[in-house]
Write a structure and sequence with these properties.
409 residues, alpha+beta, Alpha-Beta Plaits, seven-stranded mixed β-sheet, binds zinc ion
Amino acid sequence: MSKNTLSRKGGVAWSEALATRHDGLIELRRDLHRNPELSMAEHRTAEVIAERLQAAGLEVRTGLETTGAETAVVGVLRGDRPGRVIGWRADIDALPLDEIPDLPFKSAVPGVMHACGHDGHTAIAVTLAEAMAHRRKQMPGTAVFLFQPGEEVFGGAAPMIAAGVLDDPQVEAVYGLHLTTQSPAGKVWAHPGPSMASADFFNIEVRGAGGHGAFPHLSRDPITIAAHIVVGLQHLVGREIPAQETAVLTIGQIESGTKNNIIPETATLRGSLRTYDQSVREQLLARLGSFAGAIAEAHRAEAVLGFEEGSTPALVNPADQTAFIRGCLEESMGHEAVETSRPVMASDDMALFLEARPGCYFRVGIGASDGPVAPHHNPNFLMDEAGLPVGLKVALHVMLSALEGGGAG
Ligand SMILES: [Zn+2]
Ligand SMILES: [Zn+2]
């Protein structure tokens, strides 16, 4: 349970400070939505963030390019009262999609779209920083706002951590939220334990020998071998991993051949692996290569495993931290707003921040209350913006409680 004396004493003043910012919050989200930028190339977005934080009086750190996080922005806000040092992380990148819905603030960039809600995450975090800066005299401790590029390629968290963003000042805990269309606006939840899956991307190249489609005995057909590998790989999940564990192994791409009567030289499979448990992850990663290799060898060919960029461990919310966040959610939104939690098979490199520090990643609903909604990463993705002030409100509550000492082990 959180002991949030500050919100009880000064809660009215703080919530008034938020009410005046709702229009600005929506406006900023729409501006970011209109101007989406791809992972690790969020130059305008980073500029907007840095300018706003500077104007609000935060110490702003940019230019982390030496570690590879050129478009990251860190804002440090020191309150006038004593307290802890707490991080708030928000991801800022968009996706390579052509937006379909004809919104007045539809993406102005062909082929790029905010279809995961990161425009909302950014707008909430900037507005949160501004609201807290405005009342820094009442604010305990130091808030560190971590604007992370490249979440969609799992490229931004690691270089930010390597650049020391958690070390100066020494951040004690990190929190953050992800908007979700799976819950209607007004609903929130936090799941304890493994909450999002690990992600690894791999390719398998089957090297056979080409030839005429009429004389397969004179070739070593990589397509037939690839088909055996695709089917066989499911055996790894179904017969080598305990039934109570979770693993998803998907081959999402097969590339081979030029014509219906030519047996090609090679076939390439591309796939992804997701798990909740690190030992399950390691076991499957270790088996992929030898399993595919042995199937190829049985067919007189060769299969070579390679890994592609962008991997992340499972995201684990510690039980005590999740209890603290659930307390905050109930205090700020009421008991009935807090939904039953569930793990999500998607992945997020917030996992790395939570490996580095205690903390919790929770969910805020932006789904429509009536009818079906397009999922995240879909060109028809739409958010109910009524969820944004909810996100801002709970984020402020979490930050103030944590700065005061809530969630401290
Ligand atoms: Zn996403
Ligand atoms: Zn996302």
